[in-house]
Structure formats: structure tokens, C-alpha cells
Amino acid sequence: MKRLFVTMSCAVMLSGCGGNGVARAAPKVIVDSDYNTLSDDGQLGVMAAQLQAQGKIEVLGITVVSGNQWLRQGVADALKSMERLGVGDRIGVYAGANYALAHPNSEIRQELARFPSGDGYLGAWSTPEPTSDAQLVAPPDGFATHTKVQSKSAVDFIVDSVKANPNQVTILAIGPLTNIALAARQHPEIVPMIKQIVYMGGAIDVPGNTTATAEFNWWFDPEAAREVLRLPIKQTVVPLDVTDTVKMDKAVYDRIAHDPTRQTIITQLFKQLNGYGFDGKNGFETNPNYTTDVWDTLTIAWLMDPSFATQTEERWVDVDTSFGANDGKATGYASSPPAGLQKMTIVKRFDNARFFDFYVDLLTRPVPVKLP
Known about the structure:
With 372 residues, the protein is an alpha/beta fold. The protein has helices at 2-6, 40-53, 71-85, 105-114, 154-164, 178-186, 216-220, 222-229, 240-243, 250-257, 265-274, 276-279, 297-304, 352-363, and strands at residues 28-33, 58-64, 92-95, 169-173, 196-200, 235-238, 247-248, 292-293, 309-319, 330-333, 343-350. The strands form two sheets. The chain has a nine-stranded mixed β-sheet, sandwiched between helices. Strands 7-8 form a two-stranded antiparallel sheet. Strand 4 (169-173), helix 6 (178-186) and strand 5 form a beta-alpha-beta unit. Helix 6 (178-186) packs across helix 8. The longest helix has 15 residues, at 71-85. The radius of gyration is 19 Å and the shape is globular.
């Protein structure tokens, strides 16, 4: 992060120093994700590995859950991601829940038929569930050849990691919350031992995306979201309220896709899979005004340095689990919350220019990654 760190003091650097100049241990992180090749989840995987190479984070593992894709496809993409980065032997991939705790396909279809709204994005439910590896879609550079999924389940990995590192583990929850809900259900003793959870999820004061009221990650498994949000853990929410305001434009895109001095397999795949209106990829015409929102990667920026957030609020957050138009809808109470809710930080605005320097730098660093 050359441009960012040259101008920042030790007190503000991502995780190198405390206020008294004493070096701090790199935060231990589990990335709980509905993984993909190089959309927002895959981009966060790249950023996390590059931060670990700089000694600023310790990624304990990648736990995968169905959401954007079915579990089997997400695991395959995560394995290739870690292998592509050269860290498959250091950052393990763990398979988690394939289905939501509730909210089955039949209920989803009834809701959308009766209450059509939003963009109707269904993630995994938009494609048939693969029943074998032969039905998976390979990333553009092929499947992993030597990186294998870990034998331990995602739920067991979360439980064991928290117990082995009490009060040290941060969970970046950037997909549906099924894995975390199951871990807390099966082993409630870990709850007070989790340092914090940072979510990309929810739409607090803005419309949803999948439906008019609900953001996709929490809509996919609203029961799990409701359970996890009520856990007495330090929690931070990065909702659509802020992600709607962080727009990648062509200038930012070109810094990743078209800088001739920083081309890697990551930048090549970024261009191939995210070109859309920027380069006229995948049936889209080039549009100089085209922008796209940035989602999951804001969580790792906030974790590394909360001052990326320029506006936050403290509220009690809940999720609707009732059948109907508001299934999966998040509500943030400023006062007089219902019983059982937890007060948490809601990020409302970001320092976009500074974030995109951070984002571009990490996505254009050399590959393979050399971990210490």
C-alpha cells in the first residue's frame, strides 16, 4: 500500500502500532463467505492474503456457506482462489452449510410471486443445485489441482478456532449467517469468546436489493441473521446504506484492469469478470458513466482501520423472519428496542477516495503472495 502508508503516521497505520508506539499482534480473522471467483467475496480473499503477507492480519481460514452460489461451487472457487494466490497450504478452506436454517425455495417463490419488488436476485436459488463436482463451473483459469477442502466442517472450525484463541478472533461475515448461527447453537460457550463480528449485510435506512426491503445476505437466511445479531458480541454492520454510496467508476476500474505496470492473474481475471460496462464485456456496451457498488471489501478496510468510516451510528438491529414482503428486512432502533437486541455500530459513510487507494493497491500487488 505504497501511497497510503507513506503519508500515514504510525498511529493510523492499519495494525502496526498502538497509540504508544508498541507493535500490536495482527488480528486473527475467519472469513465466513459465500465465496466466488473474483466478485466481492473473491476480491476480499485476495485483499486478506495480501494483508497477511504484510503481517497486518492473520487469516485463520475461509469458511464457506451457500448464498451467492451453492456451497459446492463456492468451495471450489475458494480452493482455486487460495491456490491461485499461492497460499493454499497456509489458508484452509472449510465447507459449511448448504441450506439456510429456514427460508426454503418454496417459500421464497411464494413471497416473490405475491410481493414482486427489488431486483429479484436469488443467488444460489437461481441455478440448479449441483449434486457432483462434474456439474461445477470452472473458474476461467481452471479448478484447483492440489489444494483440497479441509476435512473439518466450517462450524467445527469456527468453534475450535475461537476456543483456541479466546477473545482474539474476528469473524468477517460477508455471506448468509448460517455457519455462525449453527456454531453458536451447538456450542454457546464460544459466544463470549468471540472478539467481534463485522458484517456486510442488511439495509437499515435504505431499500433492499433482492427485495424492496431486504439485502441479499440476510434475506437468504433471515432466521440465522436474527439469531446471530442477538448474540452478546461486539458487532459492526456494513449495510447497503454505505455500500450504495461507494461506487467503483471507470477511473478506479482502469487502475486495476489497465495499469500495464501492475498486471497479474488477479488483474486479468478482474478485467475478465468485472468488465461489464467498463470495457463492454459480457454483452454490455461500454458506458463512460457506468459504475458498480462495492460491498464485502468494505468490511476488511474497516477492520484494518475504522477511520475509513466517516459516519457511524449506534443502534439495536433486528431482522424480520415473518413470511411476506418484509422477510429478511433489517431494522435499526435508535431507542426503545425490543427485548433481546444488541447495540452495535452501523457504518453509514466511507472515505471513498482513501478506500479506493487501499482497494486498488491490494488487488494489484504481485502474485503469488509470499506469506511470512
